[in-house]
Amino acid sequence: MEKLAVIVPCYNEEAVIEESYRRTMAVLERLSNPVEIIYINDGSVDRTRFLLDDIAAKDSRVKVIHFSRNFGHQPAVTAGINNCDADLAVIIDADMQDPPELIPDLLALRARENANVVYCVRNSREGESFFKLFTSKMFYRVMNYMSEVQFPLDTGDFRLIDRKVMNEFNRFKERGKYIRGLISWVGFSQVPFYYEREARIAGETKYPLSKMLKFASTAMLYFSKKPLRLATSLGFISVVVGIILAVWFTLGKIYGFSNAEVGWTSIMTSIIFFGGVQLLTVGVLGQYVGILFDEIKARPEYIIDEKKNFS
Ligand code: UDP
Ligand code: MG
């Protein structure tokens, strides 16, 4: 029988950990598969560490990885996959927005379709701000426009993956990981599962705007070179406009059909416009140089402080 692991990243989740464990284990116990839960404590500064250690001490099916500090959601999920030896894994959030009660349905769908990945698509999202819903909708659509690969829309990291996919995932050397993108990039047989995403059971989001922006820029920079092409196009358009204006005004001066004033307004406008174009393109270039710098340093993606119940 295939072993199933549930991978749960946790950052300051003291308000939900116990409930999350209870609900998830209740679901897993009804399965005939051998099961385990891998919690990754992403450098929480609340009681998350204590609560997880307590659960792991009482239940040997619960494995815990403590990071040395907060590395972020994607590194936490990466550590979960890297340290998973099960045949199947479900990636799920600690806050129960993705109901663990759906796990048997994911397994059934996988068996029926003989799939390697079952990715969960959100039909609706409860308890999220208008801003979050709007930016997230926009993000997935812009990503598809920018990227060379097509991604399923409105899909988070909540998904079921099998050993084949995990083995391929473990070969990825890049440190900036956009996990949902990488998993669809891997290929094999992937099927959608539609569900209603619920509200957080307690606590608040651990994804403030700063983390959302970092997440979106990693996704964009690692999956698309289009920003560079856009920068080139912008430069190209500016040059063409510049040439047309120069020719127009010169001929106008000679033949007297243009009475262009020698003036402050036109000069300022063009300086600001071309200054902006230059800063923008240099900025885009800088972003790519920045990630090259990070990748060349080749620092580890996360540092583990302690592991519990791993043999
Ligand atoms: N998370 C994490 N590290 C972080 C931020 C978040 O491990 O730096 C975890 C968090 O504990 C949760 C999951 O990632 O299990 C998703 O975060 P959250 O629910 O706060 O995001 P939202 O659902 O609001 O987008
Ligand atoms: Mg959440």
Summary tags:
alpha/beta, 8 strands, eight-stranded mixed beta sheet, binds uridine-5'-diphosphate, 311 residues, elongated, binds magnesium ion, single chain
Helix content: 40-55%
What is the residue-averaged pLDDT? 90
Q: How much β-strand is present in the residues?
A: 15-25%
Indicate the overall shape: elongated
Count the beta strands. Answer: 8
The low-pLDDT segments are none
* Helical run tally: 10
Taking all Cα atoms into account, the compactness measure Rg is: 25 Å
Protein model, in words:
The protein is of the alpha/beta class and 311 residues long. It is 50% helix and 17% strand. The chain contains 10 helices and 8 strands. Strands 7-5-6-4-1-2-3-8 form an 8-stranded mixed β-sheet, sandwiched between helices. Helix 9 packs antiparallel against helix 10. The longest helix has 34 residues. It is elongated, with a radius of gyration of 25 Å. The relative contact order is 0.15. The mean pLDDT is 90. Uridine-5'-diphosphate (UDP) binds next to strand 1 and helix 3.
